[in-house]
Amino acid sequence: MELVEIKHLSKSFDNKEILKDVNISISSGKIVGLLGKNGAGKTTIIKLINDLLTPTSGEILIKGKKVGVESKKIISYLPERTYLNKQMKVSEVISYFKDFYDDFDDNKALKLLEALDLSVDQKLAKMSKGMQEKVQLVLVMSRNADLYILDEPLGGVDPATRDYILDTILSNFNEDASVIISTHLISDIERILDEVIFIDRGQVILQSDADTLRNKEKASIDEIFRRMFRC
Amino acid sequence: MLKLLKYDLKYMVQNMSVFYILSIFFAVLVRLLNMLEQTVIINILQSIFSGCAIAMCANILINTMMRSWIRFRDSIYKDESYLTHTLPVTKSDIYNSKFLQTLIFFIIGFVIVLLSLFIAYYTKDRWMLIKGLINNMTTGLEFKTMTFVISFMVIVFLEVFNAIQCGFVGIVLGNKCNNGKIGFSVLFGFIAYLISQSVVLFLVFVVGLFNSSIMNLFTNNVLLDATSFKLLLFLSISFYVIAISCMSIICKNELNRGVNVE
Amino acid sequence: MEFTFDNNLPIYIQLLEYMKIYLISGVFKCGEKLPSVRDFANTFKVNPNTMQKALAELEEMKLIYTERTNGKYVTKDEELINKLKDEYAIALAKSYFQGMKRIGLGKADSIKYLEGIE
Asked: Among partner residues C5, C9, C49, which is closest to A194 by beta-carbon distance?
């Protein structure tokens, strides 16, 4: 059984079709890049998988089950915005996650936070946006989930942080889990990808193994992407 | 569900406790000044603090209402919804938690307000005066004083709670129709409130068709007799309970059909 | 050490190159136990799946072998490693002479230059 199976998924807002007949399947143990320009529909797909949007038609199966309480137990999701209650301290957020997610490893979270020099006694409201994003990444990666979904984790971060994020993803990645990373910054991330999915104007243009594609086209994923979607 | 409630309550405590403390603080000040020798300055101070205490009491009730709405909207439709909807809990639980949170904080709010008023203004004479007033009313209506006071408070409470629920319905429907535009939420909330109020009126009217003394309410200004008053009381309490449950069902249904957050 | 990868080429092929050089230069000696796939992936900062693919390729070439439960080892066949070293040395020498030829120097002259360098 596939980890994620998306069949004939469509989504419209006010009669405007944002996604058209999207079909994707993702198996366990893969790092998958969901690649597309801004506004191509990457975030829409991710929000649909996370029950933040409701499909107009089609279905999404996570380990064979529809999106719901069961799927939320095994998906660890990092949105592109800050979504924690800013009145909370870091330590409170940690106990919040521990309360709700059985697979949350608070020791791991504390270790990762310490490595980042982030104090657990600090209120989120007192932190910079970048720091808040790091806290969120730590929380998401500290779960032992089956599927990690990271929406634009590299948007607007400095190169050092970018390397840190990629390292964190890699070193926490295990063979039983899969990671979906959406981004438009392909060259930064392509070396860690197993598979790539190209999204354009609400449709899946291509799903392929990354190295196979490089071999076939004799070019980088970034280059292939640019060629395909030249403005 | 309890876990959700725990955090909802925590949020309210964080936001409300300052008003609770201030309200009781001003009430105590009023009482203390009352015990001092009455001079002009003390009198002025007393009326200032008295005003503060009353303002805080009103503030508690209004704030509980507003905070409930804001919390509801924030955690179901704003940035925080990204966390709320990805927690492994059902949508009904999310709603139930908000519902209970509002209920609990309204009760607390009422208690604090009564307590503040008691601290600030209790004197034996005033107490007797109020008691007398109520007694006058109740004897005419063949009620025990306690029963009357309690049912009156229940009605007020249900009325306010009903209004809050209307707000929730408004937020849910408003967000469904027009992604996050606050105007629609207010509009739908107001419509829900109007509907519930007119249904009350209509219900009273329908009963009036069969009960001449209630019909008199519409035609002239006579006081109610005891039996129809009890009937009316019973009717409005049961109506509010039904209305509140209906609105809960509407909200839960709508949430279960899926959300679309920005 | 920082490892750089050219995104234009399959990552596993580049990993394969790095690994081969490790073997030739004796970073890992004949018959020596290799670190785990995960450790390698961490040092190269690549996806463990890609690392696995590179190691599988090495195994295909008989340069390493898997002992059922103990992990992966460098081949005990020294010949094989030497052969590989030969290939690399010849390729490097060829490219050196080619470069010298381009600036108009013959083989004899080129060797003289080589001897002059220490």
From this structure: C49
